[in-house]
Amino acid sequence: MNIDSISDIETQDTEDSRPILIVPYVWIGDFVRGHTVVRVLRKRWPNRPVDLLTSGLCAPLVDYMPGVRAGIVFDLPRSRLALGKQRELAAELRSRNYATALVMPRTWKSAIAPALAGIPERVGFFGEARFGLINAMRWGERKLPRFIDKNAVLALPDGAPRPGEWPVPQLRVPADEIGRWRQANGLGTGPAVALGPGSVGASKRWTYYPEAARLFAERGFDVWVVGGPGEKALAQEIAAAGGARVRDLTGTDLRNGVLAMAAANVAIANDSGLMHIAAAIGTPTMGIFGPTDPYLWAPLNELAATVRQTRSKLACQPCQRTVCTMNDHRCMRDIAAEEVVDIAQRVLAQISVR
User: Fold this and answer.
1) Peptide bond before 318: cis, by omega within 30 degrees of 0?
2) Is Disulfide bond there in the keyword field (predicted)?
3) Are strands 246-248 and 266-270 parallel, antiparallel or unpaired?
4) 261-to-34, 49, 320 alpha-carbon distances in Å
5) At 2, is the pLDDT very low, low, confident or very high (cuts 50, 70, 90)?
6) Contact predicate 171/277, CB 8 Å
7) Rounded to whole angstroms, how far apart are CA atoms 338 and 336?
8) Could you read off the pLDDT of 271-298 as tens digits, one per residue?
9) Alpha carbon of 333 to those of 242, 288, 290, 304, 310: distances in Å?
10) CA angle centred on 313, ends 309 and 314, rounded to 5°
11) In order of start, what are the domains of the chain with their CATH numbers?
12) Does residue 330 carry a pLDDT above 80?
């Protein structure tokens, strides 16, 4: 069980009001987990504003992150340095007078604009020999066990011990916004299960979402299939299998996914960004894991259930591969739809008696 250990972080200077920039990873799940870094910084310096550099895709998440002053939306090309765009971004950063930048990715590309902007303190791990671009270099990243450790430790003083548990990410979605969203989409007020069938990498996708949707519908639940445009075909397959109670809510706006996860009574998702979103909101969340290790990649927030292949331990688990190359994807195929639906109903029953 994860404990929200914000009290373990020492407050240093309540008078310091110089703004801080975080340059995060912009995969959705990593971006959500990056809110832990915000919480550590805000505890250390309560009066230093914290801004996030964000992609257009992740920008809606910033609106729900307590402690973030602003998101700076800037989409840099993935395949090249794009020095012209870097100079544009640097000019924007310079105008905001940041005193500190925390650069999470270990790449040259991520450190160029903060350096060009002349931000006095630029903190990051050694990577791609970024001497000069990073002037507060940290070492020992490879010794840190989890991705969240590699990120959040940059928000602590150099050499400071890690807390026993990091403060958990938080997304706060106003109830009136959820209500308006349900009404606008004609979703009613009945109990609903949100399914997140997508993921980065086919191997992380559970096999039986269509069958699970059908079972939920038969047991009286509305079912919402949530995801991006890449999940549209799968969502239509799930809706066709589940019948009239199943709605395809996939689309291009991540805000729609946030609101769906906030409105649902329970969320079921693969190891994906939507799983992290639902958990950070506080929706009871079931994460389905096969090729990845929950210790490394599960949300810091407590999951309602972690569902894994349990009939027989596979020697290849966890392979961490994006495509299965052995055992015919048994780590996911051996998790039955009825098992997942039964667990979800137990979760809902536990919540109803609290």
Assistant:
1) yes
2) no
3) unpaired
4) 19, 28, 26
5) very low
6) yes
7) 6
8) 999 999 999 999 999 999 988 888 888 8
9) 19, 11, 9, 21, 11
10) 95
11) 6-155 (3.40.50.2000), 179-352 (3.40.50.2000)
12) no
| Model confidence, pTM | 0.93
How many residues can be counted in the chain? 354
CA 188 remoteness from chain centre: 28
**Type of residue found at 128:** E
Cα gap 270→286, rounded to integer Å:
8
Tell me the residue type at 22: I
| Cα–Cα distance list, 41 to 16, 37, 103, 215, 353 (Å) | 12, 6, 14, 45, 37
Largest CA distance in the chain: 61
**CA gap 206, 51 in Å, rounded:** 36
Return the SS3 of 131: strand
Token pair of 159 as six digits: 């050499």
Pairwise CA distance, residues 300 & 306, whole Å: 13
- Return the pLDDT at 264: 97
Q: Which helix (H) or strand (E) holds 176?
A: helix 175-184
| Mean per-residue pLDDT over the chain, rounded | 91
Q: Concatenate the DSSP letters of all residues of 311-340 into one string.
A: SS--TT-S---SS--SGGGHHHHTS-HHHH
- Report yes or no: 134 and 121 within 8 Å, Cβ to Cβ: no
Q: Which of 269, 263, 262, 258 is nearest to 231 (CA)?
A: 269
What sign does the CA torsion over 306, 312, 315, 319 have?
negative
What six digits make up the tokens of 226? 């949530």
